[in-house]
Amino acid sequence: MSSRRLIAASCLLLALTAIVAAQERALMAQPNTVSVGADGKFESAPDTALIQFNISAQDETSKAAYDRASRAADRVRQILKSNGIDPKTAEVGFYSLEPVYDWRNPKRKLVGYRVSTSVSLKLKDFSKVGPLVQQFSDVEGNENQTLSYTLENLDEAKQKAVQDALARARASAQTVAQSSGRNLSDLLYASVDTFEPPRLLAAQHAMGDVRMMKAEAAPAPTAEFSPQKITVTAHVNAVFGLK
Fold it and tell me: What is the pLDDT of residues 61-102, one digit of tens each?
């Protein structure tokens, strides 16, 4: 796209944005109306635990690296089965095979091959989280193991956050109406924005410490703690009529 066309497209976008903004301001500025904004939220306990880690193996040949990674993956399958979990519920995110070079050598000497794959597992039974975190940590080649908690039915949580925001907006508008000796009428306009919580991952080194903790018969890092609650927020801009 030429620079002139790019400038023209940018100007058109700015003009359309200005028109929409002007229309919204005109709508909000109607006589016998009150415009309010409010934030709402919905807080819920998580319903899903997500364990993620990488399996990585390096050896002199690609076949040897592949075989080591395969043994590690088989160990993961055994752990899942021993905890009453179907290995098919675990998902593989990626698989890679790449050469490893000695970059200190000016000729970039090939020193081996590295196989990497990612595994993620969703759990509804939180009582299995601690044992699995410990057992996965003992798998050779396990790297970057993390644990997070999520809410699968996020759409329902968003709806409840919007309901809370709208109720707060209506309460504010009602206060304005009563203070001015008027009565609140129907909702004339509303815009809604919802915000999902960022997924919080455990620090990678914290999971790596599990090996030492298990050797000392210590409880799992997650033992006796409650999963962090999930909070979904919403913002509502609303215009109500006044009688």
Answer: 999 999 999 999 999 999 999 999 999 999 988 899 999 998
Q: What is the dihedral of CA 115, 116, 121, 127, to 10 degrees?
A: 80
Q: Strand 48-59 and strand 142-150: pairing?
A: antiparallel
CA distances from 35 to 26, 144, 190, 191, 229 (A): 11, 49, 9, 11, 32
| Nearest C-alpha neighbor of 52 from the set 199, 154, 196 | 199
| Chain mean position to CA 55 | 22
The fold for domain 29-46+152-243 equals Translation Initiation Factor IF3 (3.30.110)
Which amino acid is it at 208? G
* pTM across the whole model: 0.66
Structure tokens at 92: 């593989």
pLDDT score recorded for residue 115: 94
Q: Could you confirm whether domain 48-150 is CATH 1.10.10.10?
A: no
Exposure of 172 by Cβ count < 10 A (0-12 exposed, 13-18 middle, 19+ buried)?
Answer: middle
